[in-house]
Amino acid sequence: MEFLEWNQIHEWCGERGIFLDLERNEPVHSGFDVVTHGLFGQAVQQKGQEFEVAAWLIENLADWDECLLWITSWGVWPSSEDWPAYYRARGEQSERRSIDTAPGHLFTTVDRKLLLQFSELVLKNAWDAHILPAVDGHASNRRAVISHDECVDVLSAH
Length: 158
What we know:
alpha+beta, globular, single chain, 27% helix
């Protein structure tokens, strides 16, 4: 697992053909349709099912050999955020930079459990994030979007 700074995220996306909206500083999902949509958290019941939702998201991505989890927004629901748990997870990977500096989380196939762990943290903290898989150096035809409004979308290129 590797943590990426903003410029590294932009470079990684560009090399894999993932277009970015530089004003909003996030990936562009035009050319993709929602293939499945889910709700989690208090949108459907009390918190507690984030692990299952994260596992479901990862299962619904196509095959990949590297995957970027890019957290694009935090602080929307501060009372939901568990910063000590998040920074403890980063620290366990020898990462000391802040999310402000390095919001990208790059995983390889051997890091699937870590992708699950960090995706669950994003869901629990009610952050916005994009999960961008790649295979053989090119963007996958599937990706996922996590919203702070406790909904998730799996997208597929059409």
